[in-house]
Amino acid sequence: MNRGFWDNLELPIIGLAPMDGVTDAAFRYMVCKYGKPSLVMTEFTNVEGLARGATKMLRAFEYHDMERPVVAQIYGVEVDSFYKCSVMLCEMGFDGIDINMGCPANAVARHGSGAGLIRTPELAREIIKACKKGVQDWSEGITMEEAGVHKNIILEARKMTEGRNVERKMIPVSVKTRIGYDKIVTEEWIQNLLEENPANITLHGRTLKQMYMGQSNWDEIAKAAAICKGTGVSLIGNGDVSSMEDAKNKCEQYGVDGVLVGRATFGTPWFFSDKEPDLKERLEIMIEHAKYFESLGDLYFPHIRKHLGWYCKGFDGAKELRKQLVIANDSSEVCSAVQDFQNSHPF
Predict the structure, then answer these.
(1) What are the residue ranges spanned by the domains of the chain?
(2) Rounded mean pLDDT, 158-172
(3) CA torsion, ordered 177, 182, 187, 189, to nearest 10 deg
(4) What are the residues whose beta carbons fall under 8 Å from the beta carbon of 207, sequence distance 6 or more?
(5) Under a CB-based contact definition with an 8 Å cutoff, are residues 325 and 305 in contact?
(6) 318: which residues sit within 8 A by CB, 6+ positions away?
(7) Under DSSP, is residue 238 helix (H, G, I), strand (E, B) or coil?
(8) Bridging pattern class, strands 173-180 and 200-207
(9) Which ranges in 106-171 belong to alpha helices (H)?
(10) Could you report the per-residue pLDDT of 181-211, keeping only the tens digit for each?
């Protein structure tokens, strides 16, 4: 089994969970600059779209070397498209590939992908095999052209990785999933995945039906951790981790190798550090986030507004500042809003 960087991580592993519309290149960069997690994952990206030449989707795979180890997360149902994307992601220099088998969104699951794969365990295994085959073939010298990657994707991917020295080597394939679809099937589902020896399984403690409602079931996550013990496959828990202390406590209490943290990082890119910034530092980090987002190129600035709003909580005048930030059109307007706030709320 190829575990790659997973074998080099200190325990407990405490990483940044992949979140659609949240863990873009700018947010991951800020998280790694102000509080280095054990690993980060990109937003999930659809393999069928990439296989058909949707070059705009490649923006999800922008990354800075500061983020390493950085894992590309993908989803879909077409086995051959997973193969092609795995070859492409190897060439782009990622440290690992993660297959999303846990997204509960109706638009994803109704097509059988994301958490929909829990209902088709044989297909789930074929997808893991395809990704591993893509990684192996790339390590042995196959080109993107030979793998059948779309020509437009090849051109854009090579532009994005220009100047980056990528070693042809095996990288690990992992899975992120849930404890069930409409009922809990943790034990049989984990056993099914283990047949293909993914490097790691990250398990969210809710079924698809639960979405993000109720409490994450860490007892089920503990069952999965026990099943994985001794197999060489690490098991990471996910769901309702509120702080670094909580993360470490859950690792000890439930016997997992680590946790991935999601919503608790909103507006707190320093989450993984020991330092809590004061208000002045928080606003400076927020401005830096906005400027870095702009530096990435022709991106739609309103996409970062939610991040700006998340920074504004827990201090006097936060609501008023947030109202200005969620209508900002560029970083200069963010700076102006902060300056106005500082003039009316001196530190």
Answers:
(1) 4-265, 279-344
(2) 93
(3) -50
(4) 115, 178, 179, 180, 181, 182, 183, 184
(5) yes
(6) 312
(7) strand
(8) parallel
(9) 106-109, 121-139, 144-147, 151-160
(10) 999 999 999 999 999 999 999 999 999 888 8
Q: Residue 213: its pLDDT value, please?
A: 85
Q: Which of 258, 211, 187 is nearest to 9 (CA)?
A: 258
* Of 145, 197, 244, residue with least CA distance to 1: 197
Phi, psi of 206 (to 5 degrees): -135, 155
104-134 pLDDT, tens digit each = 999 999 999 999 999 999 999 999 999 999 9
Torsion 84-70-124-106 (CA) sign: negative
319: which 2 tokens?
A: 């609501």
Q: Tokens 């991935």 label which residue?
A: 260
CA pair distance 144, 150, nearest whole angstrom? 8
Question: Which residues 6+ apart lie within 8 Å of 11 measured at CB?
Answer: 251, 257, 258
- What does the block give as tokens for 50? 């990439």
pLDDT at 212: 84
Residue 48: band (very low, low, confident or very high) from pLDDT cuts 50, 70, 90: very high
Report how many helices (DSSP H) and strands (DSSP E) the chain contains, helices first: 14, 9
| 78 contact partners, CB below 8 Å, separation of at least 6 | 47, 48, 51
Residue 109 CB neighbours (<10 A): 19
CATH of domain 4-265: 3.20.20.70
What phi, psi does 71 have (nearest 5°)? -115, 130
Contact between 203 and 190 under an 8 Å Cβ cutoff? The reply is: yes
CA–CA gap between residue 117 and residue 200 (Å, rounded): 17
Angle of helix 121-139 relative to helix 79-91, nearest 10 degrees? Answer: 30
**Does the pLDDT at position 6 exceed 90?**
yes
Contacting residues for 182 by C-beta, under 8 A, at least 6 apart: 207, 208, 209
Question: Please, what is the Cα angle at 190 between 188 and 192, to 5 degrees?
Answer: 70
Distance of CA 79 to the CA centre of its chain: 21
Helices 25-34 and 279-295 sit at what angle, rounded to 10 degrees?
140
Please tell me the distance from the alpha carbon of residue 236 to that of residue 255, in angstroms, as a whole number.
9
Is residue 237 within a helix (H) or strand (E), and if so which, with residue range? strand 234-238
Nearest to 133 by CA among 177, 74, 82, 63: 82
